[in-house]
Every structure is written in C-alpha cells, then in structure tokens.
Design goal:
39% of the residues lie in helices and 15% in strands. With 753 residues, the protein is α+β, with helices and mostly antiparallel strands. It has five domains: 137 residues, Alpha-Beta Plaits; 160 residues, Sulfite Reductase Hemoprotein, domain 1; 97 residues, Sulfite Reductase Hemoprotein, domain 2, CATH 3.90.480.20; 160 residues, Sulfite Reductase Hemoprotein, domain 1, CATH 3.30.413; 142 residues, Four Helix Bundle (Hemerythrin (Met), subunit A) (Up-down Bundle), CATH 1.20.120.330. A five-stranded antiparallel sheet has the order 1-4-7-6-15. Strands 5-16-17-14-13 form a five-stranded antiparallel sheet. A five-stranded mixed sheet has the order 8-9-10-11-12. The N and C termini lie far apart (82 Å). The N terminus is likely disordered.
C-alpha cells in the first residue's frame, strides 16, 4: 500500500472548486448566448441538464395546495401559462447528495435557497437527491455557487451522465452489513464526476452500494451498476470486496442486474467501474434513446461477452492515482457520537411518543445509540423545517444526516438518553409523523404536478393512500403494515412501482370522447433482497378506485396468507386469475353524466382533459370495434401471465405477441379499410400507417413502444426463457397501453365535415 497522504483529498477539493468556478462562469455565458439566440437549443439543453437543470411542467399549481392554477406566484415573479419551451418558465434544479450524506450547514443552505428562489419546499427524491422546483434559469448559477460553497454540486445530476451514487442510509450502523460502504461510495462519486471516460453515454448511468444482500436499502439489482459488500479470507487475513452487478434498471421494461464478478477487491472497484463505463460509452446505443441504457447492451451482448469486454478493457487502461489513494484514509468518513451512549430509551409523556418510536427509531449496532427516521410525506420538507433540523442535528449529534430512497431523512448517532428530547424538538418543527418504513410510507414520483411525462397524479394518489392508511394503522395487522406501496405517474417507474408489493403507474383511458385517469396495478414485486423481483401489470383501474383496490388486495392477503408468507409469494401461490377476480369490477367507469368525479384526477378539480370536438357516428362504430379488440388484447396479456406462472415460457411469449397483434388489428380499424388477416400484412400496415408516419409516437415514449411490436414480430420463432417471456409480457403491456393512448389522441382531433 502507498504511503498515506493526508492532504490528497483537500487538493482534489481545491482543484474541483477551481474547475467548478470556471464551469459556472461558462454556464452563465451560455445562458446569455441562449437568450440572444446564439446557442442551439439542443446544445443548451444538454448543457443545463448536465448541471442538474430540468424544464418542468408548470400549468399546475404547487403540489400541496390541492388546487392547480393557471397563474402562479413565485419568488422569481409571476408566471402565466404559456409555451412549454425549455426554461422559458421556472424549472427544477436537482442537487446531488452522494449516498445521501448531509451536514447541518448544508441543510441550512438548502432551506435558504428553497425560500429565496423556489416555493419554500425542498423535495427528497427516490435517489437520495434534493430537488428545488420553480427555479428560474437566471438564478441557477447563483444557486450553484452557493451550494458549491458548502461542498454540494449539481454537476451531472441529470443528462447522459453518471447520476448520484446511492447507498444504504444505514451504512456504518447496520448490524447486517459486511462493512461500511460509505467511503467507497464517496470515492466512486468523485472519481467518476466529470471523468473523460464518462462523457460519451447515450443515456444515464446509475450506481448503487449495499452493505448486505438481504435488505433493500441499497437496491443494487435495479441499477446500471451495483455493489454488495462482501469479504473473503486470503492467507489468514480478511479482505474486503464487492459482488459487482451490471445492467439493471426499471423504466418502462425493467431488467434485473446481472452478476459481473463474485468478488472485486477494494483496489479494483474504481478501475473496473471505469472499464464498464468505457465499454458502455463505446458500444452503447446513441441514436435510439429507448435502447440506450446499459441494460440493453448487456442484453444484446450477453453477460459473458459483456464481462469479457470489460475485463479486456481493464487490462489496457493506464493506472490512475485515484484508483487506490482513497484507501489510505477510509476512516475519513467514520462517524462519532456527540453525546454519551444511553442505556435505555428515554420516555416521554406524549401519548403519541410510543407509537412514533415503534416505526421511526432504528437500533444501531453501536450499543446505546439509535437512528431517528423523519418520515416526510411525499418527500417534502419546508425551509423552516430544514433550519430546525439543522439545529437539532448540531444539538444532539455530530451532524450525521442521511437522505433515503424512501424520500425520508435519517438523523444518526442519537443517544438513547436523548430520544425523548429529540422527539420534543422534532415535534415543535412538525417532523414527528409516525409510520416510517410501513405501508403508510408511500413513495411517489412528481407525476403530473411538475413532470412533463406525468400521465396521472401520482402524488395526489399517494397522499390519498397515506391519509387513508394512517387512519387505519392503529388497528392494522403487522403483515399489512409491512407492505410496500410505490406510485409512478407514468410507465417509467421513477416511483419504483415494479419493486413494490403494491405498485401503481399512471395511464389513461378514453371512453365516449372523455379521458379518464387510470393506474395500472402492478403485483409480484419484491423490495427486499436489493429489489429482488419485478412485478407485472394486472390491469388498469380508474384512479379514483385505487384506494378501494388497495383495501381489497390487503384484506385478501390478510384472510388467505399462510404463516410468514410474503405478499409476493401469496400472489404467486393463489395465482393472478384469483387476484384479477378480486378487482375486476373496479375497472368499470360510470358515465360522465352519472359521476363526473371519475373524470378528474386526485387533488385537481378540473376535468382530466377538455371536452372533445366533433363526434361522428362512423367514428363511434369504429371505436366500438377498437375497444373490443383492445379488451381482447388485455385478456390475452392476462392469460400470458397465467402461462408464465405455470412455467410455460414459450406459451406466455406467444400469447403476449398475439395480444400485440390483436391490439394492432384494432388500431388499424381506425384508419385502414381492409385490415390484413395475416400477421405479416398487419405488421406492414402498422409500419406504414402508424410507425413511419409517427402517428403512433407520443411525447412520453416516442416510437419505442411501436418498436417493441416490430422487434417482437421479427424475433418470432426464437428461443424463449422465463426472463425473456417476462420481458415480452411487459413490452406487450406497454404496447397495448400505447394503442389506447394513440386512439385517444386521434379521437381528440376535430371531425371533418
């Protein structure tokens, strides 16, 4: 091992500060050029994204007011709804928080920025970052400089780059971990940040660390690259290393990460990750964004060939000092308590204190200390609460704070003797909401509140579920309390619906010229074992009936589960046919005249879409035929899932493709007088009428869902295993949903004559 150099990290920080200053000056110049029309929109888009600056949806009011407005007041001025162009309106700034680590001064600055430039709210994301919404582009450089002054960057928080390196928020205090992964996550963050080998990706690249296999905290298997801490004995000495995984990801069609190596030593973890990045940058898709994640490259090459290329790449790389220099000071991220350990958990006269302790206190492996979990509904925390929390962190700890992928905040190293006092201080700041880590702790992406891709109100639904479940939690069975609910506003799974016990993602349906917000129900996912299994969609339910859906499914689980049976195993045992029967009647939608509440979304009294223009009898008849075909396609998708349950992978894949063919036939009825009877003709007609004309394309997915159908048609007759059949069903489900959406867009067009 090299001699220790205690000043290497300070020099890196100084160098990065100088470089960051220059970059922010450049960014400010680019903003000026953009305003003058001297910078191409695409170039500026990539520039701002790589600095964490997103455009956002802004025809809706702030998330918590319950009413969406057309005119908004913000610190940056008054905004009236106008053209949705990148950053002509306030946008969103994503702030990287590596492994979720924060200190008190950083919390204060985040609060100041939220108050001065945003709407007074900071949002904890599902990747441990912080987001500020309604930020004006002119203010972005100033905000970035103030963040840099306290050691925070927004660099590469967005764009085709290495995103925030996440890690288990209990790293270093968990009894199950092999060792603390914090210093490794920190080292990887700053090794890859701005690295030349990480600037040529076709899409984003997300790393994650976990200290153990069984718990979900790191969620390694749903990441582009992931690391699970492990050890082995070599010549009588314990050696640290990692199981290394590649090619995972959620998104529209999720993939489980594949094992790249059973043991990567701590000396090799940085260079081997760099080799993965180089292979991804060289061979990954660049033109078709729908196929540009590393999971598609691993699929295309196979894990054996991909691994061969990575280790071949590693063998020709020139050594870099940062690969191992951090190992001389692994203890630089060690945490120490501020106060003495407590022998017993201190009591409190507040009747709610015991209830809060049951769910919001985590026993550290260090005797006498606990971690306090602050449950943040929808991940939101106000500027005042951030300031209060910073004071509490200084008073009781050495400012040992972490954000979590459940959108909460953890205060670590609290003495048991101080828990009652901490509770009182947190209560004064309105930060003692119980239910952390239970079914009440619903995770949600921004959805239609601020995301341009949102289809249904994920935050509105999540808030409704949280409120309803909290009321029932006092008498709730522990088996139900332990379930995980996650909600996404669209198919992209930013809310993590694929790995929840009960997952939901936003879709829409058009009935009699009216659009109705729906959610697909996704069952069979597994949050534990680092996101150990992905669920499949069971069918679309009107948004307003999702709470009742949750009630029925949880009650069925309670009534019929076997001893210690997980929800995932319960679903697998009783079968999707029985599950489907439990909620089938909830798919029905009252007519517009019978109940208009179904035609608006949660937390939004407006109609989901404006009334359609022009209704023709011919169109009505065609829609009826289309609806019949789409209903058949959805039935076939369900039958495909039943086949997969019975290990009939070949039959499941065939049935899923047949569902795509049936949906295509229905869609073609809307345009083609003579719809082909054979599959080859249908494929060609679809390509000519919908794909090549981009009529099938939508703002959420472009043409990738149509490409799923074309690719499936081209691959018929090939070999099928369980994973590929699972993927075929997922892709077919998305294609059928896209057929619904395409029909809805067509019906909204004025009828000629």
């Amino acid at each position: 091992m090299k001699a220790s150099n205690p000043h290497w990290r300070e020099r890196v920080v100084e160098q990065m500060s100088s470089q960051l200053t220059e970059e922010l000056d450049q960014f400010e110049t680019e903003i000026t050029l953009k305003k003058q029309g001297k910078l191409d929109d695409r170039v500026f888009a990539e520039t701002r994204l790589r600095r964490g600056a997103y455009g956002q949806r802004y025809d809706n009011g702030r998330r918590n007011d319950g009413i969406k407005t057309q005119k908004l007041e913000f610190p940056c001025g008054t905004l009236t709804k106008g053209p949705d162009t990148a950053w002509d309106a306030p946008g969103m700034l994503r702030i990287k928080i590596p492994y979720g680590g924060l200190n008190a001064r950083q919390l204060e600055v985040l609060g100041e920025l939220a108050e001065e430039y945003s709407d007074g709210i900071a949002h904890v994301t599902t990747r441990q970052c912080i987001q500020l919404h309604f930020i004006h582009i002119d203010d972005a450089p100033t905000i970035m400089r103030r963040l840099a002054a306290v050691g925070i960057t927004t660099r590469e928080a967005c764009g085709n780059s290495v995103r925030n390196v996440t890690a288990c928020p209990f790293s270093g205090i968990c009894s199950d971990e092999a060792f603390d992964v914090t210093p490794y996550a920190h080292a990887l963050t700053y090794h890859l940040l701005g690295h030349p080998d990480c600037q040529n990706f076709g899409r984003k690249f997300k790393p994650a660390f976990s200290g153990c296999k069984d718990q979900p905290c790191g969620l390694v298997k749903m990441h582009d690259v992931g690391y699970i801490a492990t050890t082995r004995e070599v010549d009588g000495k314990v050696q640290r290393g990692f199981e290394m995984y590649v090619g995972g990801g959620l998104g529209a069609v999720p993939r489980q990460a594949k094992l790249l190596s059973e043991f990567v030593s701590e000396e090799e973890i940085l260079p081997l990750t760099q080799a993965v990045a180089r292979v991804f940058g060289r061979l990954g898709e660049k033109k078709n964004r729908g196929k540009a994640r590393i999971k598609f490259l691993v699929d295309k090459l196979g894990i054996e060939e991909f691994s061969r290329l990575v280790f071949e790449e590693r063998s020709i790389m020139e050594p870099e000092a940062s690969w191992t220099s951090y190992l001389d000071e692994l203890d630089i991220k060690d945490e120490k308590p501020l106060r003495d350990a407590g022998s017993d958990l201190a009591g409190n006269d507040d009747p709610e204190f015991a209830k809060w302790c049951e769910t919001n206190i985590y026993q550290q492996k260090q005797e006498g200390f606990v971690a306090v979990i602050l449950s943040l509904p929808l991940g939101d925390i106000t500027a005042d609460q951030l300031r209060s929390l910073s004071d509490i962190a200084r008073k009781y700890t050495n400012e040992t704070i972490r954000t979590t992928v459940e959108q909460n905040i953890i205060l670590r190293w609290v003495s048991k003797a101080d828990v009652a006092a901490v509770y009182s201080d947190l209560k004064a700041a309105e930060l003692v909401i119980p239910g952390a880590g239970t079914i009440v702790d619903v995770t949600s992406c921004p959805g239609t509140d601020t995301c341009k891709l949102g289809i249904s109100s994920s935050r509105g639904l999540a808030a409704q579920l949280r409120e309803r479940l909290a009321e029932k939690s006092v008498h709730m069975d522990q088996a139900i309390k332990d379930l995980v609910i996650k909600v996404s506003g669209c198919f992209n799974s930013c809310g993590g619906h694929h790995v929840a016990d009960l997952g939901f993602y936003g879709v829409s349906r058009s009935i009699n010229k009216h659009s109705i917000p729906h959610f697909q129900v996704v069952l069979g996912g597994q949050w534990s074992h680092n996101a150990g299994a992905y669920g499949l969609p069971m069918g679309a339910i009107p948004s307003k009936r999702i709470p009742e859906t949750v009630d029925r499914l949880t009650q069925a689980f309670l009534d019929k589960k076997e001893k210690d049976e997980s929800f995932k195993d319960f679903v697998g045992r009783i079968g999707k046919a029985e599950i489907k029967g439990l909620i089938q009647d909830l798919t029905q939608v009252p007519t517009y005249e019978e109940d208009r509440s179904y035609y608006s979304d949660w937390s939004d009294p407006r109609e989901y879409t404006k009334d359609d223009i022009g209704i023709g009898e011919c169109a009505g008849e065609v829609v009826t035929a289309f609806t019949f075909d789409l209903t058949s396609a959805e039935r076939m998708l369900f039958e495909a899932q039943l086949k997969l349950e019975k290990d009939d992978s070949q039959g499941a894949a065939i049935q899923a493709f047949d569902a795509m063919v049936t949906a295509t036939r229905g869609l073609l009825r809307l345009k083609v007088p003579n719809v082909g009877k054979d599959t080859e003709t249908l494929v060609q007609q679809f390509r000519t009428e919908y794909f090549d004309t981009e009529l099938f394309f939508d703002p959420y997915a472009g043409g990738k869902f149509g490409q799923y159908f074309l690719d499936a048609a081209a691959s018929q007759g090939g070999s099928v295993d369980k994973d590929s059949a699972h993927r075929q069903i997922e892709e077919a489900s998305l294609f059928v949903e896209a057929c619904h959406a395409c029909s809805g867009r067509m019906s909204e067009q004025p009828t000629a004559g």
